[in-house]
Design a protein that fits this description.
20 helices; 63% helix; 10% strand; binds adenosine-5'-diphosphate; binds magnesium ion
C-alpha cells in the first residue's frame, strides 16, 4: 500500500515545476511590488484630501527627506499647503484628484504586467505536467495498465490536470502577490497606529483557522468527485468501444441505467463540493466584517478620547488600508480552499508520476546491433501477478537457432501469447532467463532489443492516420517506393491503389474503415518495412476468412523468408514446415518435434491435426 504524502508537501512538490520559469516569476514579483506600492500611495491621498476638505493641518515647514512615511506625508502636506495658499482650495482638490487618477492608472498597469508574466508560468507548468504524464503512459510497463481503468487514467490526464490549472495555478497569483500586499499594508498600519494594529494581528488568524477547517473537508469531497469522474469516463470509453455489441444485444436501457446512476452520484458529490466551496467566501467576508467593526469601535474610541492622539484623517486612512486588506485576505482563504481541492488532483496525478517504470535500460546496457546466433528460454516460469501462485508458464526451455522457425500450438489460454510477449520484454521475468546471442535480454538496450523484432498480432493495431503513415510507422525518412514495395510483398498494394486516395487514404479510428484482412496485410507491410531479423507472429491469420487468409498467408510466407521466426498458429496446416513445433498445455510444453515426428508420436498434436483436417 502506498503511503500518502502530507498534502502540503504535494503542493510544494508542484511548485518545484515553477522553477523552470524563474525569469517570469521574478518579473511577476517585481511588477506586483510596484503595483502594491502605487496602490498604497494612491490610498495615502485620502489624508491630504480629507485635510483639504476639513481645512485642517496646514504645514508651513519642510522636514528633511528620510525614507519614512512620516517624512513623505509631511513634505507632501507642505507642498499642498503652499499650493492652497497660492491657488486656493478648489484647484488643490483638482490637483489631488488628477494625482489619484495617475496613481491608480500606474497601479493597475503594473498589476496587469504582473498578470501578464504569470500566465506563461501557469500554462507552462500545466503543459509540463501533461507531458510528464504522457511520457509515463508511454514508458510504463503493460502490467500497469491491466490494473488501472483506462477511463480513470484519462480522467487523471484531463480533468485532474484541468483542476490543477484552475485551482492551484490560480493560487500562484495569490502566492506571488498577496503576501507582499498584506506585508506592506500591515507595515503601513503599524506605522499609522500600533495599538489598532494589535487587534488586527490577534483577530485575523482566528478567522483564518475557521476557514481552514472548510478547506480540509473540501479536499476530501474533491478527491471523491475526481475518482467518480474517472469511473464515468471509463463507462463512456467502454460504451464507445463496445457500441456494436450494445446495439446487437439491445442493451441500451441497461447501459443507460448504469450511466444515469453514475452520473447522478457524480452530481450529488459536485453539489456537496460547490456548497462547501461557496461557503468559504461569504464566511470569510462576514468574519472580515466582524473584525472590521471591532477595529472601528476601538479606533473610534481612540479618536474621541482626547488623551490619545489618533487623528481622524489618519484613522480613516487606517480603516481604508484595513479594508484593502480584506480582499487579499479573502483571496488567500479562497486560494487556500482551492488548493485543498486541487491537492486531491495532485495526489491522483502523483500516483501516475510516481509509478515505477520497471522495464527500462539497466546501467551500462549493451548494444544489440545484429542478431547472430540464437534465442534461448531457460527454465522460464511466469505469473502475471508478482509473487502470485498463478503460474501461466512453467519451466519453459526453448532454443531457436538463427534463421529457424519455431511454431507454438495449443489450446487458447495455454500461455502461447505470454511466452512470445516475454521476448520483447513486455513483461519482466521473475524466474528463469531469456538469452539472445547468449546474453540475458535484460542486459540489452531496450530499443535495440525491440528494434530487432517485428510483431504481427491477431488484432492488427492501426492508428487514425493515412495508410502510408501506418506502414512507415515509427520509422524516419521512408520513401514512397519503400512503402509501396513493402505493401506489394504484403499483398496489400492492389487494394490500397483501389482506395480513394491510395496511400494517403485515412484508415479511421483503429483502422475501422478497412476489413480485417486488409488491416492485417497493412500490419504485415509494416513489419516487412521494418525488416527485423526476428519475427513474432501471434495468430496473425486466425481472425480472417479463407480468401483473405490465403492472401495474408502468402504475405506472411514472404515476410518469414530469411528470418528467425516465433509463430503462434491456430491453423496447423500453416506451420507444417516449421523447424520445430512446440505443443503447449496449461503453461507447459507437452510435446515437441517436427510435424512428421509429432504425427508419428500419435499424441496431442496428432489429434489436433486430424480434427482440423476434417474441417
Ligand atoms: P494463449 O495465447 O495461449 O491463448 P495467453 O498467454 O494469452 O494464452 O494466456 C495465458 C493465461 O494467462 C490465461 O489463463 C490468461 O487468463 C492469463 N493472462 C493473459 N494475459 C493476462 C494479463 N494481462 N493479466 C493477467 N492474466 C493474463
Ligand atoms: Mg494468444
Amino acid at each position: 500500500k502506498r503511503i500518502s504524502l502530507p498534502p502540503m508537501k504535494n503542493y510544494l512538490r508542484l511548485l518545484r515545476y515553477v522553477k523552470s520559469y524563474k525569469g517570469y516569476a521574478f518579473l511577476n514579483i517585481f511588477f506586483n511590488m510596484l503595483s502594491v506600492i502605487f496602490s498604497l500611495f494612491s490610498l495615502t491621498m485620502v489624508i491630504p484630501f480629507l485635510n483639504v476638505l476639513f481645512g485642517q493641518q496646514q504645514v508651513y515647514e519642510k522636514v528633511a527627506w528620510t525614507f519614512s512615511v512620516k517624512a513623505a506625508l509631511t513634505n507632501f502636506n507642505y507642498f499642498l499647503s503652499q499650493y492652497i495658499i497660492e491657488h486656493g482650495k478648489i484647484p488643490a482638490l483638482t490637483y489631488i484628484c488628477v494625482l489619484i487618477v495617475i496613481l491608480f492608472f500606474l497601479k493597475n498597469l503594473f498589476r496587469y504586467l504582473a498578470m501578464y508574466f504569470i500566465s506563461p508560468i501557469r500554462n507552462g507548468v500545466v503543459r509540463d505536467l501533461r507531458n510528464k504524464m504522457y511520457n509515463k503512459i508511454l514508458f510504463l510497463p503493460l502490467t500497469y495498465f491491466s490494473e488501472e481503468r483506462k477511463g480513470d487514467l484519462m480522467s487523471r490526464m484531463t480533468s485532474d490536470v484541468q483542476e490543477i490549472e484552475w485551482s492551484i495555478m490560480q493560487s500562484l497569483e495569490v502566492i506571488f502577490r498577496e503576501p507582499l500586499t498584506v506585508g506592506l499594508y500591515l507595515a503601513t498600519m503599524v506605522i499609522m497606529s500600533p495599538q489598532l494594529s494589535l487587534f488586527v494581528f490577534i483577530l485575523l488568524p482566528i478567522a483564518g483557522l475557521l476557514i481552514g477547517q472548510i478547506g480540509k473537508s473540501l479536499r476530501r469531497t474533491s478527491s471523491k468527485s475526481q475518482a467518480k469522474m474517472g469511473v464515468l469516463l471509463s463507462a463512456i470509453e467502454e460504451t464507445l468501444s463496445g457500441l456494436r455489441i450494445v446495439k446487437a444485444f439491445t442493451a441500451e436501457p441497461f447501459f443507460q441505467k448504469k450511466f444515469y446512476k453514475l452520473n447522478d452520484e457524480y452530481r450529488k458529490l459536485m453539489i456537496r463540493l460547490y456548497r462547501k466551496r461557496d461557503l468559504t467566501s461569504p464566511l470569510s467576508e462576514f468574519l472580515g466584517a466582524v473584525v472590521m467593526v471591532i477595529v472601528i469601535y476601538f479606533g473610534g474610541k481612540l479618536v474621541l478620547d482626547e488623551a490619545e492622539s489618533l487623528e481622524p484623517s489618519v484613522f480613516i486612512y487606517f480603516i481604508v488600508i484595513f479594508s484593502q486588506l480584506i480582499p487579499p485576505a479573502k483571496s488567500f482563504s479562497e486560494a487556500y480552499s482551492n488548493v485543498q481541492r486541487g491537492l486531491a488532483s495532485v495526489e491522483r496525478i502523483n500516483k501516475i508520476l510516481d509509478a515505477e517504470i520497471t522495464i527500462a535500460d539497466k546501467e551500462h546496457a549493451i548494444q544489440l546491433t545484429d542478431f547472430n546466433h540464437s534465442i534461448e528460454y531457460r527454465d522460464v516460469s511466469f505469473a502475471y501477478h508478482k509473487g502470485g501462485s498463478g503460474w501461466v508458464l512453467k519451466n519453459i526451455d526453448l532454443k531457436i537457432e538463427k534463421g529457424k522457425t519455431i511454431a507454438l500450438v495449443g489450446q487458447s489460454g495455454s500461455g502461447k501469447t505470454t511466452l512470445v510477449d516475454l521476448l520483447p520484454r513486455f513483461y519482466d521475468l521473475e524466474h528463469g532467463e531469456i538469452l539472445v546471442d547468449g546474453e540475458n535480454i535484460n542486459a540489452y538496450k531496450l530499443n535495440d532489443l525491440r528494434g530487432n523484432m517485428g510483431i504481427v498480432n491477431q488484432e492488427s493495431i492501426l492508428f487514425n492516420d493515412t495508410i502510408f503513415n501506418n506502414i512507415a510507422f515509427g520509422l524516419d525518412n521512408i520513401s514512397i517506393a519503400d512503402v509501396e514495395n513493402a505493401a506489394k510483398i504484403a499483398n496489400a498494394h492492389d487494394f490500397i491503389m483501389q482506395m480513394q486516395d491510395g496511400y494517403q487514404t485515412n484508415v479511421g479510428d483503429r483502422g475501422g474503415r478497412l476489413s480485417g484482412g486488409q488491416r492485417q496485410r497493412i500490419s504485415i507491410a509494416r513489419a516487412i518495412l521494418k525488416n527485423p531479423p526476428i519475427l513474432i507472429l501471434d495468430e496473425a491469420t486466425s481472425a480472417l476468412d479463407t480468401e483473405s487468409e490465403r492472401l495474408v498467408q502468402d504475405a506472411i510466407t514472404n515476410l518469414m523468408k530469411n528470418r528467425t521466426t516465433l509463430v503462434v498458429a491456430h491453423r496447423l496446416s500453416t506451420i507444417k514446415h516449421a523447424d520445430e513445433i512446440i505443443v503447449m498445455q496449461q503453461g507447459e510444453i507437452i510435446e515437441r518435434g517436427t510435424h512428421l515426428q509429432l504425427l508419428d508420436k500419435g499424441g496431442v498434436y496428432k489429434k489436433l491435426y486430424e480434427l482440423q483436417a476434417f474441417v
